[in-house]
Amino acid sequence: MELAVERIHHRALYPVHAFLLAATVPLFLGTLLADTAYWSTFQVQWKNFSSWLNVGGLLFGGLTLLFALVGLRHSSLRRGRYLAYVLLVLAMWVLGFFNALVHAKDAWGVMPEGLVLSVIVALLACAACWLGFSSLRTGGTP
Amino acid sequence: MKAANALTVLALSTLLVACSTDPEPLQYGAEPALPKPQRELLPAMNIADPVGWGEERPVVPTGYSITPIATDLKVPRHTLLLPNGDILVAEGKGGGAPKLRPKDFIAGYLKSKGTTSVESGDRLTLLRDADGDGTYEGRTVYAENLNAPYGLALVGNRLYVANQDALVRFDYQSGQTRASSPPVEVTKLPSQINHHWTKALTASPDGRFLYVGIGSNSNITERGMIAEHDRAVVWQVDAETGAHKTFASGLRNPTALTFQPGTDQLWAVVNERDELGPNLVPDYLTSVREGAFYGWPYSYWGQNIDTRVRPQAPQKVASAVKPDYALGSHVAPLGLAFSEPAMGPLFADGVFVGEHGSWNREEPSGYKVAFVPFRGGRPAGAPIDFVTGFMGADGKTRGRPVGVTVDPRGALIIADDLSNTIWRVTPR
Predict the structure, then answer these.
(1) Touching check for B311 and chain A: CB below 8 Å?
(2) pLDDT tens across B4-13, in order?
(3) Residue B421 belongs to what domain range?
(4) Total domains, chain B
(5) Does the N-terminal or the C-terminal CB of chain B have fewer CB atoms within 10 Å?
(6) Is B385 part of the contact surface with chain A (CB cutoff 8 Å)?
(7) Averaged pLDDT for residues B281-305
């Protein structure tokens, strides 16, 4: 009698990858909060903060994207889910980059597009983090 | 990351340059065409690509000739003609406002490519043509260790110099080639941050007052409203006491001031705001009315509101007056001088304007000395090119005009802060 053994490769994120991914959340969330503060106070220093936080998010997000793309090589039964994760990181980075260009507009010229983009990018970062950590861990239920 | 960003910006800018053009609007005079503001994801940029003059020369009208009377200066900005015919040159580079945003690093780097790499002279150089043959064989350092001197004015035997942080005074004696003593401070000038650091200067005809042009501390308030205290104004300074009052406000960057000969009317050229598109906002020439508000930052050319400013100020906007004469968007006027009959019949009545040239435009504007004809004491008609060729047909930039000074014996003196040259244009 033969026993069917199903080998499932559940890979947790490589620790460096996990660290980089996790860093995008406070950075892009910080961008959003600083933009919100500028929106409500007109104090331009908040916009300086948000511009730099966004650059930080792009730095960590860009490296996350590299790790995520490299991870595509590994076959997994959860490949579809992983692909969704990569696409989320990609979308987060591309929109974050556009947000950097929008934030280069002087003073209130950043509004309202900058705030809208910051909301979307922060949500994408949260979603990428959720998907990246929850569905890919060993033995967990998504 | 920074380098990568800069590269991307460069690549995208090149794409933008390749696929669009800036139509040349009729943008001079009292009622310039003002298109809708536009700002793509990246501002249009075309930075001057400097190259030496070699055998090339600036182009002057038929019947005129141009010669360099001094070269290898250290960033010459404005010149002053002394009563004995000597020429004083203010040399320096100020500013150094801190970089606050990611953009400042990239834009600052790109823009620095279009300027001289020579270090700030922080001095005054005196040029002398003792035998009157048009060759300025004498050259001495009149004063040094100044702080980015820009505006110059002479009242009797008092020589006033506007450093980037203070208005100072020398005792001048005719024939001097070197200041006899260190300068005396007349008054401090606003110098915090000093985004627009140049301090333009002129004296009232009676010599009682000095007028100092103080530029804004930002393009459009992006360094915060507090940084704009005592900025974008013209100060009236009592020459005796150093006491000052704000003479006019809302002038974003008044880079040259002068009095109309035979009148008590102050005139200025002003650099207007950027990043609203290639054809906004026109830089201008205007008579400066006491107490008037010229719009910056809340509005431009009268009541056209700039939505980038928060909080807005509808009452200020309502009070904003229109300037007299648009010179064109982004031409960057930095020099202003009323002409004299000796400059030839076509250029006898009007003003010369030194236009440093644009960065915020795909098709460059400025990079020349223009002549705005006057009739009945007011600007009338289209500006006429007087000296061109600073940006060649090959797209290379050989010079960038700043201060202009008229020698009543029939010569225009032009300071060029890219090739570090003083040019002299004379009717033949």
Answers:
(1) yes
(2) 444 444 444 4
(3) 2-22+33-427
(4) 1
(5) C
(6) no
(7) 98
- The helix/strand/coil state of B219 is coil
pLDDT tens-place string over residues A80-90: 888 999 999 99
Q: Is there a contact between B222 and A107 if contact means CB atoms under 8 Å apart?
A: yes
In-domain check, residue B361: yes
**Assign residue B287 a region: left if phi > 0, alpha if psi is -120 to 50, beta otherwise?**
beta
Residue A139 lies in a domain: no
CATH number, residue B155: 2.120.10.30
Of B5, B102, B308, which has the smallest distance from its Cβ to A107's Cβ?
B308
Residue A109 belongs to some domain of the structure: yes
Assigned domain for B214 exists: yes
* CB-CB contact of B113 with B156 (8 Å): no
Q: Give the number of other CB atoms < 10 A from CB of residue A11.
A: 13
B169, HSE (Cβ side, Cα atoms, 13 Å)? 20
Under 8 Å between Cβ of B266 and B310: no
Burial label for B206, CB within 10 Å (0-12, 13-18, 19+), is exposed
* Angle, alpha carbons B163-B164-B170 (nearest 5°): 10
Q: What is the Cα Rg of chain B in Å? A: 20
Q: Which residues in chain A come in under a pLDDT of 70? A: 1-11, 75-78, 135-142
The count of CB pairs under 8 A between chains A and B is 62
The two three-digit tokens of residue B121, written as one number: 């002279």
φ, ψ of residue B158 in degrees (nearest 5): -110, 120
C-alpha B73/C-alpha B145 separation (Å) is 15
Q: What mean pLDDT, rounded, does chain B reach? A: 93
Is B28 inside a domain boundary? Answer: no
Q: Name the residue range of residue A120's domain.
A: 15-134
Give contacts of A48 with chain B, Cβ < 8 Å.
100-101
Q: What domain count does chain A have?
A: 1
d(CA B66, CA B128): 17
- Pick from A42, A100, A105: which is nearest to B39 by CB? A105
Total Cβ atoms within 10 A of residue B45: 20
Q: Is residue A7 assigned to a domain?
A: no
ipTM of the complex: 0.87
Q: Is the link from the previous residue into B321 a cis peptide, with omega within 30 of 0? A: no
Q: Is residue A33 in some structural domain?
A: yes
What long-range pairs does B320-323 form, CB within 8 A, spacing at least 24? B320/B250, B320/B293, B320/B294, B320/B295, B321/B289, B321/B292, B321/B293, B321/B294, B321/B295, B322/B30, B323/B270, B323/B284, B323/B285, B323/B286, B323/B294
Identify the three-state secondary structure at position B73: coil
Task: Supply the pTM of this predicted model.
Answer: 0.91
- Give the CA angle between residues A113, A115, A119 to the nearest 5°: 115
Residue of B nearest to A61 (CA): B1
